[in-house]
Amino acid sequence: MSTRSPEEQLKEFELTAACLRAYLQKYPELQTPKVLIICGSGLGGLSSLLKQDDKYHKISIKYKDIPGFKESHVPGHSGELIFGHLGENATPVMCMVGRFHYYEGHSFYSNTFPIRVAKLLGVEYLVVTNAAGGINESYKPGDIMVINDHINFPGLAGQHPLRGLNLDNFGPRFTPLSDAYDFDLRLTVFNSLKKLGINRNIHEGTYFYASGPTFESRAECRMIRYLGADAVGMSTVPEVIVARHCGIKVLGLSLITNAVLGEKPASAKDASLKGKSSIDIIDQSKGMASHDEVLENANNTADDVKKLVEYFVGSL
Q1: Chain centroid to CA 95: how far?
Q2: Strands 144-152 and 202-209
Q3: CA–CA gap between residue 180 and residue 241 (Å, rounded)
Q4: Is 111 annotated as a binding residue?
Q5: The pTM is what?
Q6: pLDDT at residue 226, as a whole number
Q7: Active site (catalytic) residues
Q8: Is the sign of the CA dihedral 300, 301, 305, 308 positive or negative?
Q9: Residue 112 and which of 269, 277, 279, 289 are 20 to 30 A apart at CA?
Q10: pLDDT of residue 288
Q11: What whole-number distance in Å separates Cα of residue 137 and Cα of residue 135?
């Protein structure tokens, strides 16, 4: 939540939008992008798909050079905004190579700042990608989940990106989220799978937003599964909520990079009764998540995600 008035916030967004237009002054076709693509962990390579030749230009701007943008300090997030054309129809897009996270100490206002700037630039669609842990027991590392719903756990406890005075210039006070992830956009993805020759498992499910930065405990994983989520991650939902508040349509893709550990830990009490030591008990670290594993599996899946995003954007 920002302490600035709605009028002051609007001026800040407008200043940043004007700054970006100035950067793009020589390339007027890029000043009004149609799609914002947020590249999650290990997916920065999406920006490599942007066309670059004598006809089409690709312009990169570091976050540190953009008013209102924070710097990302997470491995796999390079921290630059890239403008260019993507897909068969050469759709003008802006790519966030790296995002801002609540666990980094940024406010939700800062985390979602680029969404409102994108709206002022003319963006109509948000493609948001992330790396996520598989909660659904049928999900395996390397699978992709098309997000059809979410659980905003911090938001239910009051940490909500729309908390505070409403920004009436962008959207209504009470924003419905029953259609947060657009049906027609999801349908486009599933209709494209055979044409693109993608053979990996593509699921459709619910994303659980936890603020991080720790990976979930075993008990938390069981709770999240009980609540009906299929995958869990530390991003995306605040961005989606603000996008929907702005009237931007959303497509969300999760790369399943690890299977969560939901089994109860080994019992020290039982081991004591049986006269066993930790050496006799299964390794408690086996299967534990790590950011290196997340990046590795994201990189292994990235090519198929690139195909999906390129086809989807090209169909708009």
Answers
A1: 12
A2: parallel
A3: 8
A4: no
A5: 0.91
A6: 96
A7: 41, 77, 101, 103-104, 131, 234-235, 258, 291
A8: positive
A9: 289
A10: 58
A11: 6
Radius of gyration of the chain (CA): 20
- Ordered mean pLDDT values, 10 residues apiece, the chain (316 residues): 86 96 94 94 78 88 93 70 93 92 90 97 97 94 96 95 96 96 96 89 97 91 96 96 98 91 79 70 56 61 86 90
With 0-12 CB in 10 A as exposed, 13-18 as middle and 19+ as buried, what is 168?
exposed
What residue ranges define each of the domains in the chain, with the CATH number in brackets? 6-314 (3.40.50.1580)
**Annotation-wise, does 57 bind a ligand?**
no
Tell whether 222 is in a known binding site.
Answer: no
Closest by CA position to 155, among listed 102, 205, 230: 102
* CB distance 44 to 98 below 8 Å: yes
* Max CA distance (Å), the chain: 75
Contact 164, 245 (CB under 8 A): no
Q: Is 178 annotated to bind ligand?
A: no
Angle between helices 113-121 and 6-23 (to 10 degrees): 60
Q: Which two tokens mark 74? A: 């997470």
User: CB neighbours (10 Å) of residue 274?
Assistant: 10
- Read off the amino acid at residue 244: R
Annotated ligand binding at 101? The verdict is yes
